[in-house]
Amino acid sequence: MTKLGLGTIGTSGITEQFIEAAQLSDMYVYQGVYSRHMDKADEFKKRYNAATAYDDFDAFLNDSTIDVVYVASPNSLHFSQAKAVIEHNKHAIVEKPMVASLEKWTELTELAKEKGVVVVEAARHIFEPNFIKITDMIKGFEGISGATLTYSKYSSRYDNVLAGEEPPIFSPKFAGGAANDLGIYTVYAALRWFGKPEAVHAFSHTISTGADGLGTAILRYENFDVTLHYGKIVTATVPSEVYSLDQTLVLDAITGLEKAELVDAKTRESQTVELDKSADNPLIWEAKAFAKVMQDPNEKENKEALNEWLRLSYNVHQVLDQIRSQA
Ligand SMILES: NC(=O)c1ccc[n+]([C@@H]2O[C@H](COP(=O)([O-])OP(=O)(O)OC[C@H]3O[C@@H](n4cnc5c(N)ncnc54)[C@H](OP(=O)(O)O)[C@@H]3O)[C@@H](O)[C@H]2O)c1
Questions:
Q1: For atom 36 of ligand 1, which residue has the closest CA?
Q2: CB of 173 closer than 6 angstroms to any ligand 1 atom
Q3: What contacts 220, CB < 8 A, 6 or more positions away?
């Protein structure tokens, strides 16, 4: 298969990690780096052996050697940047959350369809083999009685907020905040494992910037509830759990999941679930999955995979819209 020409937007740690994953996969060739600052673009070009460094967005978009652009800028910029990428007939891999509203989600994905290119949301955990193994296990449960999913991690950038600054990840202007940054991982997990909820009830605590620092969402299903806890101003150490009548599945994490146990509901005897050690670069799985689909988007299996990712992403954004409007 021909390797995909890769371009990147953003020069923070996550872009470094994605470039490394893309190079490790051997399915991409790094063609262009865009930064608002030429010195940063040049540094990336040298470090990762990119063909061209750009600080001019139009020139970057017009580089015909770039087939796919990885967009890892602050959340509120994803829509306009990904739209420009798609308008230039290139595929787009957009960091989570792909956009900040369901309306924009629909506009972006319809444009991609019209242009015959692929747009995907980089929800990395759903591509991790351990997450997939747990998904299969949950699908085999006799009945679900509920779940509590947690992803709360103190962000070092909250120190900046406490010092009176407004970094994008904590700024409403940039669609920052806990639900968009970490809550989305728990929403993805809940919807992958249990489907679309019948109702959503969400609560949050607002920090000085006006963004949500932490929140709770209750997803109501016909016979059970799933509670999501997420936050960027606290660190949670409790595991996540999925309940069925006869057993409880205990998970050490929602992303980068490495340890799982099945606990018998009556005897409390526990049994370790065999999982792999997380990959050194956990973005490798999504990098490979996206490249496979983008190399041949019309092939049946690839088309089905893309449709499934988009269906899930749509439902996630629908729930996120409800969380954002209530919280
Ligand atoms: N999948 C994951 O595990 C994961 C992990 C972390 C973050 N993310 C996602 O990645 C995205 C970036 O997050 P981050 O925390 O890395 O953000 P960030 O550090 O605030 O910004 C990322 C990059 O965007 C560019 N940028 C910053 N402010 C900008 C502005 N005002 N206008 C235009 N460009 C700007 C900068 O690149 P230049 O200065 O070079 O232009 C910067 O390196 C978010 O969507 C986040 O959700 C995903």
A1: 10
A2: no
A3: 197, 198, 199, 200, 201
Query: Does ligand 1 have an atom closer than 6 angstroms to the CB of 74?
Result: yes
Distance CA 157, CA 237 (A): 20
For the segment 140-166, what is each residue's pLDDT rounded down to a tens digit?
A: 998 999 999 999 999 999 999 999 999
CA distance 285 to 228: 25
Closest CA to 176 of 228, 112, 232: 232
Kindly give the distance from the C-alpha atom of residue 75 to the centroid of ligand 1, in angstroms, as a whole number.
Answer: 8
Domains of the chain plus CATH, in order, are 4-125+282-299 (3.40.50.720), 129-278 (3.30.360.10)
Residue pair 27/51 in contact (Cβ under 8 Å)? The answer is: no
Please give the structure tokens belonging to residue 321: 């819209």
- 255: alpha, beta or left, given left = phi > 0 and alpha = psi -120 to 50? beta
Q: What angle do CA 300, 303, 309 make, to 5 degrees?
A: 140
| Whether the Cβ atoms of residue 285 and residue 128 lie closer than 8 Å to each other | yes
What are the phi and psi torsion angles at 146 (to 5°)?
A: 145, 180
CB-based burial label for 32 (10 Å; 0-12, 13-18, 19+): buried
Single-letter amino acid code for the residue at 164: G
- Tokens of residue 83, six digits: 């739209």
Q: Provide long-range contacts, Cβ within 8 A and 24+ apart, for 257-266.
A: 257/125, 257/128, 257/130, 257/131, 257/134, 258/130, 260/130, 260/134
CA 31 to chain centre: 24
pLDDT digits (tens, 9 = 90+) for 229-266: 999 999 999 999 999 999 999 999 999 999 999 999 99
Which residue has its alpha carbon closest to ligand 1 atom 18? 74
Helix (H, G, I), strand (E, B) or coil at 87: helix
CA 239 to centroid of ligand 1, rounded, Å: 28
